[in-house]
Amino acid sequence: MTNENWYSINHPDGVISPSLLVYPDRIQHNIDLMISMTGDANRLRPHVKTYKNANIINMQMERGIRKFKCATIAEAELLGDCNTVDVLLAMQPVGANAQRFIELIKKYPNTKFSTLIDNSKTLTILSEMAASNNIRIPLWIDINNGMNRTGIIPDNDALELYSQLHENKYLIAEGLHVYDGHLRNSDPVIREQECNTAFEAVIYLKKSIEEKNIPSPKIVAGGSPTFPFHCKRQDVDASPGTTLLWDSGYGNQFPEMDFLPAAVLFTRIVSKPTTGILCFDLGHKSVAPEMPFPRIEFIDLKHSKQISQSEEHLVVEYDDLTIPEVGDPHYAIPRHICPTVAKYDTLTVIKDNTIIDYWPVTARTQKSTI
């Protein structure tokens, strides 16, 4: 962990560029830190969308993590293949995906699969599908506590929806799912205050459910930015995701969080078209392009400015013309790791500056077998 050149490969000549490198020692640090922050692996439900890989799932299971969250049926199927105990599909299944979810339950009888709803129409559809397949489906009510992306506002309508869920003989009321990804203030004191304020309505809804003599709902809450706060709540499962690999976006925005970047882009200079300009083989197809520049943070190339990007190319202004040459390898941390991983078939595994393995990004596709 103290090696200044922890990211580099000793013999990079045969390495394809661009590649995405991962470092299991650093991943293990991040897993152990997540557990130490909660104090109990049983109160973690990490999101697999960041890495979509069985090896990293297994590393967590070896540390006692048994519950996971995912966003796609392919990710859920990967978790089933890993024999995980409890999987929450945190995307309300609609259309063909509802039937795929039923097939998922049938294929992996030893894994408990649950999913989200935020309206009575979806509740009715899933209830009818459960009845026709002679199963019961565990469901969570997806709560909108300010992000305004999905979910139902935690008011009387949410209480009524949860009551309907509880009373339905083909469904199982699991609890409340609360994702507050809109809370990203870089000041941890302000971010915690905003997190606690937004969570007050969830606590009130939970009490209202209990007052109706309905079993107390479980709660899954937060992502990576609010993980330090939700992990303190004894009756809440925290669900970070980016914490496993980390990235420069969260690393720069939340410097007080001690997670380590564990994924690095390996790239090469492919051209020096004019004075002060370098071009890298790191286009839209190789790194998440939805963020404004900079989309990566070079580890070994300081004083650079990213000025344009296309499908295959990243163009950078650089003020030291004596060092870089065409073909030179360089290393960078992506600003947003989750969609960057999805651009690669494999992760190149590095230990002690040496390639030791290649891990497949199994769930990067829309469909596996289901």
UniProtKB/TrEMBL annotation:
<dbReference type="Pfam" id="PF01168">
    <property type="entry name" value="Ala_racemase_N"/>
</dbReference>
<dbReference type="InterPro" id="IPR001608">
    <property type="entry name" value="Ala_racemase_N"/>
</dbReference>
<dbReference type="InterPro" id="IPR029066">
    <property type="entry name" value="PLP-binding_barrel"/>
</dbReference>
<dbReference type="Pfam" id="PF14031">
    <property type="entry name" value="D-ser_dehydrat"/>
</dbReference>
<dbReference type="GO" id="GO:0036088">
    <property type="term" value="P:D-serine catabolic process"/>
</dbReference>
<dbReference type="InterPro" id="IPR051466">
    <property type="entry name" value="D-amino_acid_metab_enzyme"/>
</dbReference>
<dbReference type="GO" id="GO:0008721">
    <property type="term" value="F:D-serine ammonia-lyase activity"/>
</dbReference>
<feature type="domain" description="D-serine dehydratase-like">
    <location>
        <begin position="262"/>
        <end position="351"/>
    </location>
</feature>
<protein>
    <submittedName>
        <fullName>D-serine deaminase-like pyridoxal phosphate-dependent protein</fullName>
    </submittedName>
</protein>
<keyword id="KW-0456">Lyase</keyword>
<dbReference type="InterPro" id="IPR042208">
    <property type="entry name" value="D-ser_dehydrat-like_sf"/>
</dbReference>
<comment type="similarity">
    <text>Belongs to the DSD1 family.</text>
</comment>
<dbReference type="InterPro" id="IPR026956">
    <property type="entry name" value="D-ser_dehydrat-like_dom"/>
</dbReference>
